[in-house]
Recover the amino acids of this structure.
């Protein structure tokens, strides 16, 4: 039998343990010495015998050769202590098998949430129900605060670096912002979890994630739709390339070669069949071609020839302002001519279903007396630089046809909210951000995928319902049997100046919005970074009162009209949005019409809620940590905890111990066994930070040290 009374159950059956099995789990939720991490309950690695019963439960792959067998990585399990389920939804990780024993490790609690989130980013969230077209008709009704409050997203106005006129707002400077609560709820939904509501916390309810950088089509997405086609001629069918000996009307060039780099056809979305490119994505495109043509007529006669190469969309020449564009044409010539034609069309918007093709044509021109050219000739794919394949086919490397989707998102495009969320920020990072801002303790429910949440200030508010663990303190445990008790006057790696800071952005004043907790202890290091959030602070606009600045553009040439801008990359942002301050204006609906609107402007700092970290965050939500760091006492004591104590652990409720006449936060229960005393990590809550008893005589007299005993532990 095992030396502990902890047991592991797999598929309703108990694993066989023996005298070598040291199963001593530790329990914790948040380690307040590491506020930017999420902790979970776990056991150190332990082993169990590789007998027939355990082979079957652990799905041993080769039961008949167990010493060489390879087990599955993990299985669901239940941990019981003294017959009480202490980790009902545990994960048993099978780390190996050797010398006739399985090496195992048990995880539970918050590990379930962390594993569900994995490396998924905010852009992996399913927000497809909010898809809509980016048009003034959809932007205008989504500007009011009420729309954002009700739906969890809406459009907003920021100083992005371009001219901003509230009497004629450019709709293409309006991007969708998403409420933090919508992102939070979707993260939990996608992960299969629910959670206690945080909407009663004003800071959480007002948190807003604006677009930091306009969405652009990714390189991977664009490359999958790119075309670079060439022209191959075959000796048996066209030994002199593609050739005409009399004038010919517009004819599509058979640019069908895409087999080898640098030539390629679209690999996703768009198609290229029979020298015709078919668009699948609304966007701006660059279209270009290079066609080396040899054309000729006899110089003894007055007639002449010419050649024209043009790009066509949907089979038609391309016109702008009544004039044809995207073509290249020669002059009327006699005698041999070689010319590289290069029709081009830049930043042209194409719609799904549009087709793009390359055409050429040859024309004859009469000379004096209506005498036409003699011996006219047009050739392509014969006189240029040739690459000959082993089968004899020739590739003219001076003949190419390219289609490139640009990264810029176009007006009228399909807005997918998840694609406009901060690029590269993981869902776990977002959860940690909320955890840090509200000083959350996150605890997974023992029996269901539900998160119990408690803000940092709740620990102090729960003093009236503190649990009395005075009688659980094992003051007489023989030192030879138990670890020595421990007391230190330092908690974690904190210093005299403890920084909580926003991510740096080159266009935001360094240090703006950061906060700090000061500890008056000369024995501590000078400085410690509590955490750095993955979002940057946002400063007010220098030019538009009341508006926040998120710089995406800088004027690169103000001498031209319209002004030329270069792009600027901003770091992800987190701001606050409430019903006020209210702003009114008019938005340009196109066709010269303006529509009035009323909206609220997001803010970063105010006399009420504020993301200046020294204010709401550290002053209100981090009250528990301030109470821990003031005259720190960090104890490791031996307590006799029952399995029911472990099953009902609530880290948001402090404990009282008479021997010390103090309240403590439970940081960790280490290597628990119901058969002996267990090491419990306790952090004292300084009496100076605690609320007074509700009524005189209620609770314990400790306020401002009125009956505070001298330090002796």
């Amino acid at each position: 039998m095992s030396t502990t009374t902890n047991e592991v159950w797999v598929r309703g059956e108990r694993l066989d343990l023996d005298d070598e099995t040291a199963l001593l789990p530790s329990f914790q939720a948040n380690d307040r010495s590491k506020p930017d991490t999420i902790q979970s309950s776990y056991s150190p690695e332990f082993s169990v015998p590789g007998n027939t019963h355990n082979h079957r439960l652990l799905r041993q792959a080769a039961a008949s050769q167990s010493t060489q067998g390879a087990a599955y990585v993990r299985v669901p399990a239940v941990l019981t202590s003294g017959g009480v389920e202490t980790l009902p939804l545990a994960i048993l990780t099978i780390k190996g098998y050797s010398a006739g024993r399985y090496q195992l490790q048990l995880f539970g609690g918050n590990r379930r949430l962390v594993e569900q989130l994995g490396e998924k980013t905010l852009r992996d969230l399913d927000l497809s129900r909010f898809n809509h077209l980016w048009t003034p008709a959809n932007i205008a009704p989504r500007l009011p605060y009420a729309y954002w409050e009700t739906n969890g997203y809406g459009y907003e106005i920021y100083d992005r670096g371009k001219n901003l006129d509230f009497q004629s707002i450019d709709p293409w400077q309006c991007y969708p912002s998403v409420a933090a609560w919508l992102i939070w709820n979707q993260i939990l939904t996608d992960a299969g979890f629910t959670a206690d509501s945080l909407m009663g916390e004003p800071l959480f309810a007002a948190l807003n994630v604006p677009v930091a950088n306009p969405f652009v089509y990714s390189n991977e997405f664009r490359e999958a739709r790119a075309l670079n086609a060439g022209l191959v001629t075959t000796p048996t069918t066209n030994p002199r390339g593609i050739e005409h000996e009399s004038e010919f009307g517009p004819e599509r060039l058979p640019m069908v070669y895409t087999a080898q780099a640098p030539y390629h056809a679209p690999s996703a979305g768009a198609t290229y069949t029979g020298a015709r490119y078919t668009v699948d994505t609304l966007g701006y495109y660059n279209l270009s071609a290079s066609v080396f043509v040899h054309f000729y007529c006899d110089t003894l006669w007055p007639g002449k020839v010419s050649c024209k190469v043009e790009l066509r969309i949907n089979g038609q020449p391309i016109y702008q302002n009544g004039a044809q564009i995207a073509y290249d044409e020669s002059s009327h010539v006699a005698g041999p001519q070689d010319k590289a034609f290069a029709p081009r069309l830049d930043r042209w918007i194409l719609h799904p279903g549009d087709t793009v093709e390359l055409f050429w044509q040859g024309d004859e021109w009469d000379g004096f007396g209506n005498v036409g050219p003699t011996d006219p000739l047009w050739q392509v794919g014969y006189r240029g630089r040739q690459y000959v394949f082993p089968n004899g086919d020739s590739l003219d490397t001076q003949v190419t046809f390219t289609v490139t989707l640009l990264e810029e998102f176009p007006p009228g495009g399909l807005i997918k909210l998840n694609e406009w969320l901060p690029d590269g920020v993981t869902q776990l990072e977002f959860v940690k951000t909320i955890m840090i801002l509200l000083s959350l303790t996150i605890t997974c429910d023992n029996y269901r995928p539900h998160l119990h949440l408690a803000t940092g200030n709740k620990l102090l508010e729960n003093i009236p319902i503190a649990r009395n663990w005075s009688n659980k303190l094992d003051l007489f445990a023989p030192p030879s049997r138990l670890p020595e008790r421990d007391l230190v006057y330092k908690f974690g790696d904190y210093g005299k100046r403890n920084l909580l800071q926003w991510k740096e952005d080159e266009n935001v004043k360094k240090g703006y919005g950061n906060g700090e907790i000061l500890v008056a202890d000369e024995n501590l290091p000078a400085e410690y970074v509590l955490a750095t959030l993955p979002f940057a602070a946002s400063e007010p606009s220098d030019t538009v009162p009341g508006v926040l600045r998120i710089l995406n553009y800088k004027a690169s040439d103000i001498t031209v009209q319209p002004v030329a801008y270069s792009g600027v990359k901003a770091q992800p942002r987190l701001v606050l949005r409430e019903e006020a301050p209210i702003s009114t204006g008019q938005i340009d609906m196109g066709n010269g019409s303006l529509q009035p609107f009323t909206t609220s402007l997001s803010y970063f700092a105010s006399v009420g809620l504020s993301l200046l970290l020294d204010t709401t965050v550290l002053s209100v939500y981090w009250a528990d940590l301030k109470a821990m760091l003031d005259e720190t006492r960090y104890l490791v004591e031996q307590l006799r905890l029952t399995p029911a104590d472990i099953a009902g652990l609530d880290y948001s409720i402090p404990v009282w111990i008479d021997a010390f006449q103090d309240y403590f936060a439970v940081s960790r229960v280490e290597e628990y066994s119901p058969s002996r005393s267990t090491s419990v990590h306790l952090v004292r809550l300084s009496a100076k930070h605690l609320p007074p008893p509700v009524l005189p005589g209620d609770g314990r007299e400790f306020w401002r040290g009125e009956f505070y005993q001298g330090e002796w532990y």
Observations:
- The longest helix spans residues 180-191.
- The chain has a mean pLDDT of 89.
